[in-house]
Amino acid sequence: MPRKIALTVLVVLGAVVMFFPFLWTVVTSLSSQTGLSATPSLIPADPSLEAYRELFGNTPFARVVLNSVGLAVATTVLQLVTSATAAYVFSRMPFRGRGVVFAVYLATMMIPIQVLIVPLFVQMRALGLVDTYLGVLLPGVASAFGVFLLRQAMNSVPRELDEAATLDGAGHLRIFSRIVLPLVGPALATLTVFSFMSSWNSFLWPLVILRTDELQTLPLALAGLQGQYTTQWDVMMAGSVVSILPMLAIYLTAQKYVIQGVAGTGIK
Prior knowledge:
It is globular, with a radius of gyration of 23 Å. With 268 residues, it is mainly alpha-helical. The protein contains 14 helices and no strands. Pfam families: BPD_transp_1.
């Protein structure tokens, strides 16, 4: 019993430590400049939405949010399609050298994005895609992690289901869409959250490939706020809250499936 109480206290303390920065960000975004100069408090003395009005009224932040949403959704959808189809091939369609190809594919996960920035930029420039949405999107179309995650989930689906469907006249496309995909739902939900989060928080590649303010993504716009609103912490924190809320909503919606997917469960 004492051990259980101690573990509970540790978990609660850990949760408080993790949640406090987000709470402080929200409180700061609702505090006026006068309130910020007063004694710090978790309850704003004069709460106001003025920082959000300033953010969306005097900066192109609405356009920036739409840019990030569009790119994140497109990246997520493309990664789901490419990862699911590649994972099915590695899991269900044997061919010579499959293990070697899969190992090489996974080895690309070890290469940091900083190493690829220059060759990627040269390639995008040759294609005329610098300062375009497509230039931001193309490097994230495929995901080695997504293929690995979905392949592991598909390997846990019994092969007897494939054999039964084959006896009924089903081909690979029907087995893939009607049998395998529904049974790896938790893994798909996990990849959805990870893909959206990766695109939403991406900073280095958009910084290199984009030039105009109209095409900026949210991380770039947040970095720009530091120069424009250096001392207006409420406006900067309002931008941070706007960047956090979509990810928080997506995770809370898919939390159950993410836990199942990470645990490696592919069958309900």
